[in-house]
Amino acid sequence: MSTSKNNSNFDPRTRFYGPVLDSRDLKEFAQFVGTAKLSIPDQSGIIKSFEESFSKMMGDGSSLLTQSGTSAILSALISLGLRPGDEILYPIFGFHACVMPAHFLGLKVRFVPVDETTLLLDCNKIENYIGASTKAIYALHLFGQSVDISAIHRIKKKYGLKVLADACHSFGSTYREREVGSYADVAVYSLQQSKLLAAGEGGVIWAANEKYIQNIEALAHPGRRLSKRLKLFQGISFGLKFRPHPVVAWLALSQLGKLN
User: Can you say whether the dihedral through the CA atoms of 234, 187, 123, 100 is positive or negative?
Assistant: First the structure.
C-alpha cells in the first residue's frame, strides 16, 4: 500500500494504517496467491509459519490464528473454562467488542473503575469488586501502555483468578523485557487494519499453557490435530469455524518481520 502526498485526497492519518507492503512484497504475494493454497484446514504452510513465529516473539507458549480479534476473545473466554454465571471483571473504559463475547456466553460482567490518567484498570480498586462468583480479570492494555502487571498477578494469586490480557492496542509493549500479553493465562491480539500488526482482519490467541490453545482448537478449528483428550472432536470441532484465510496469515507474517 502506498499513498502519494501529491494526491489531493491525501490524508496524513492513512500512514498509520497497515499492512505496509513494498514492491517485493506485492510480487511475493501474487506468487503466493497463484499457488492456490488458499484453504488450509490444518496447522501447516503459512498458518504454521505465522503461529510459530508469533510464539517465538512472545518468548514461549503456543499461538493460534483466528479470523478476527473478537472471535479470539470469545475463544479465549471459553478456553479458560468460564461458564454461565461466572463473573469476570472488566475496566469501565474500553471497546464494546471486548465485553460482548462475555455477555454472549452468559458470563456476569462487573465493571471496575479506571485510572483517570491512563484509562487503564485501577488496580488499587479491583479487590473492592471481587465477589464469590468472580473467576477472571480482563486486563485491557491500551495506547501502548500496560496495566500494572505486578498488581494484577498479586490479586490473581490471592484470589485464584484467571487473567485474560487484551493487548490489541499495546502490541510490542514490554514489561521486564517481555511482551505485556505474555504474563496472562491467555492473551488476545487483533490484526485489524488500524493495529500495529496489521493484516486487514484477523486475530491471534497466545497461551503459555498449551491446553488452552487445544481447547480452542476443539471449539472452532476443524482440521487441526487435536490432543488425545479431545480426539472426539477431530475434524468437526463444536460446529464452529474460526480459522483464518491463509491470505491473512501471509500478510501477518510479512508484517511480523517488519516490526523492528
Answer: negative
Q: What is the mean pLDDT of the chain?
A: 89
| DSSP 3-state of 169 | coil
Burial of 179 (0-12, 13-18, 19+ CB in 10 A): buried
DSSP letter for 213, please.
H
Which grid coordinates belong to 172? 510490542
Query: Could you say which DSSP state residue 119 is in?
Result: -
Amino acid letter at 93?
A: F
Q: What's the one-letter identity of residue 80? A: L
Q: What cell was used for 14? A: 492513512
Residue 257, class by beta-carbon neighbours within 10 Å (0-12 exposed, 13-18 middle, 19+ buried)?
exposed
* Exposure class string for 219-249: b at 16+ Cβ within 10 A, else e: bbbbbbebeeebeebeeebeeeebbbbbbbb
16-68 pLDDT, tens digit per residue, is 677 888 899 899 989 998 886 788 888 889 999 999 999 999 999 999 999 99
194 Cβ partners below 8 Å, 6+ apart? 16, 17
- Give the Cα separation of 119 and 211 in Å (integer): 32
Q: 42 and 65 in contact (C-beta within 8 Å)?
A: no
Instruction: Provide the 3-class DSSP secondary structure of residue 247.
Output: helix
